[in-house]
């Protein structure tokens, strides 16, 4: 399937995730709506979900841009460059037609390598520090720090809070989890966690990792 065929299937007005690297090397992330494309030169988006006005001031023509959208369970992602920005009649972003495009299914059990500091909270007094690894839509692996001592039976099948900070986020994310198992690995002791609460931030992080992965693969080619 060509890039033209894939982009033709993008529904009008669908919400997309957009990430821009500014000229100051700052990452700005926001949502946009798909307006359309002329098939060979440009794609038109309408900016809708920018959280801060200051972020928009840093975005300008020539900045690298990464776009991702979920269509019928498949992730469509591509990298390009901003051609121009317009403020009338709406906030339009016009980007150059992408050379490379990635399309792949969002499998529920797909896991991605990660390394983020995190804490598990049973209550205000019982806190376990560690590292979050192997992120997926359903859960993750949590490796307690070497100095942590705790009773694993105290944690099983209880609802805990996992606190961590995902890349490109200014604030910590707290997700309800349950300890489901202790994966057998001779090299490290770990806890298998299952997400119980809102996982929208996790889904965004996985999509971002897929896009970054596609960019790296394109650069290798």
UniProtKB/TrEMBL annotation:
Domain PilZ positions: 106-210
Species, as recorded: Alginatibacterium sediminis
GO MF, one example: cyclic-di-GMP binding
InterPro entries: PilZ_domain (IPR009875), Split_barrel_FMN-bd (IPR012349)
Gene3D superfamilies from the UniProt entry: Electron Transport, Fmn-binding Protein, Chain A, predicted glycosyltransferase like domains
UniProt-recorded name of the protein: PilZ domain-containing protein
């Amino acid at each position: 399937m060509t890039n033209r065929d894939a982009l033709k299937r993008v529904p009008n007005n669908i919400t997309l995730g957009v990430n821009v690297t500014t000229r100051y090397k700052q990452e700005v992330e926001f949502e946009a709506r798909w307006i359309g494309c002329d098939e060979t030169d440009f794609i038109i988006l309408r900016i809708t979900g920018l959280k801060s006005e200051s972020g928009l001031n840093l975005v300008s023509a020539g900045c690298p841009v990464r776009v991702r959208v979920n269509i019928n369970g498949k992730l469509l992602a591509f990298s390009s460059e901003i051609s121009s920005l317009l403020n009338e009649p709406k906030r339009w972003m016009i980007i150059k037609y992408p050379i490379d495009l990635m399309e792949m299914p969002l499998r529920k059990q797909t896991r991605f390598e990660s390394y983020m500091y995190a804490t598990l909270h049973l209550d205000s007094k019982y806190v376990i520090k560690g590292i979050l690894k192997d992120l997926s839509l359903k859960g993750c692996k949590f490796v307690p720090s070497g100095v942590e001592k705790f009773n694993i039976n105290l944690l099983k099948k209880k609802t805990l809070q996992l606190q961590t900070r995902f890349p490109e986020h200014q604030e910590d994310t707290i997700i309800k989890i349950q300890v489901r198992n202790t994966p057998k690995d001779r090299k490290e002791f770990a806890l298998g966690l299952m997400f119980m609460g809102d996982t929208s931030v996790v889904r965004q992080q996985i999509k971002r990792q897929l896009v970054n992965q596609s960019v790296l693969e394109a650069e290798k080619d």
